[in-house]
Amino acid sequence: MRVFHFVEEQWGMDDIRRRxxxxxxxxxxxxxxxxxxxxxxxxxxxxxxxxxxxxxARVRGFLCFSLxxxxxxxxxxxxxxxxxxxxxxxxxxxxxxxxxxxSAKRFIVDVERLLNMTTPDPVLFARFLFTKYAxxxxxxxxxxxxxxxxxxxxLYFSEFNDELQLACVIVGARSKVTRDxxxxxxxxxxxxxxxxxxxxxxxxxxxxRQRNPxxxx
Length: 217
Hints:
The protein has helices spanning about 10-20, 45-60, 70-80, 110-115, 120-130, 180-185, and strands at about 1-5, 20, 60-65, 85-90, 100, 100-105, 130-135, 140-145, 155-160, 165-170, 195-200, 205-210. The protein is α+β, with helices and mostly antiparallel strands. The protein has one domain (about 1-215). The strands form four sheets. A five-stranded mixed beta sheet has the order 1-4-10-11-12. The protein has a three-stranded antiparallel beta sheet with strand order 3-8-5. It has a two-stranded antiparallel ribbon with strand order 2-9. Strand 11 and strand 12 form a beta hairpin. Helix 1 (about 10-20) packs parallel to helix 6 (about 180-185). The longest helix is centred in the first third of the chain and has 17 residues, at about 45-60.
């Protein structure tokens, strides 16, 4: 499955050079309702969910992707207003990377059943992890949950590997990254990674591929 990760130029080039992708910590994400997709009016449920969220944030993080790279809003929000990059990865077609469910309403939990569980319910747990408000739907997000291992100055990374293969690099329409800069960053990955420049479409509100090679230095 091909998935896409939008990133600022500086960090995207560093990711390419160092063959790794930054893990997003729960407190860094821009949606304050992360893991809070349930109706939390019941005090006991609210306490349990907040405690579980805190524990999750301590030991887990996310690799966040989109199924599409054509949306100009995502380039604006996550790739420095089209000055950044979009990294395309090949990932396994399995439950390691799962799509977000977008909902206009918060889901209802059987509080008594939940509080009396002796073992976690993986289906319910997944609802908390992969439910977001409907207005985020434009992101077409898929995400992987990863363990936080050794940190580097408080940051965590996942190395490129067989389950996280860099397949393409799309240079933003306003980016100053040149072919030579990208080739140098890719090094021995250059022959196997597709690279191209993006541009704004002429007839739609989309970001598309620049087909004129003369318009990318």
